Amino acid sequence: MKRMSQDELLALPTTISVETAARAIGLGRTRAYQTARRGEFPCKVIRVGAGYRVVTVGLCRLLGVELN
């Protein structure tokens, strides 16, 4: 799995899927969902219906990427 570049991170929408966030931080899909369900994902995750969305600004902060 290839991690995201800074340009890819900056192009993300306001919220993203758990899979996309996992790719950005180098976490496997299964582990990402496990941590999201337990409330242990390393940045803010919100529940939307039966799914989860990761708040992009939190992900960028975690990775040290500044949004303009």
The ordered H/E elements are HEHHEEH
In angstroms, what is the radius of gyration? 11 Å
**What is the strand content?**
15-25%
Q: Outline, from the CA principal axes?
A: globular
Unreliable stretches covering 5 or more consecutive residues: none
Oligomeric form: single chain
Distance between the termini: 27 Å
What's the helix count? 4
Helix content: 40-55%
Major sheet summary line: 3 strands, antiparallel
Q: Spatial order of the strands in the main sheet?
A: 1-3-2
Mean pLDDT reading: 90
The count of strands amounts to: 3
Question: Helix/strand-derived class?
Answer: alpha+beta
Summarize the structure.
With 68 residues, the protein is of the alpha+beta class. The protein contains four helices and three strands, in the order H-E-H-H-E-E-H.
Structural notes for this entry:
The protein has 68 residues and is an alpha+beta fold. It has four helices and three strands. The longest helix has 9 residues. 18% of the residues are buried.
Keywords:
68 residues; alpha+beta
What topology emerges from the helices and strands here?
Blueprint: H1 6-10, E1 15-17, H2 18-25, H3 29-37, E2 45-48, E3 51-55, H4 56-63
Antiparallel strand pairs: 1-3, 2-3
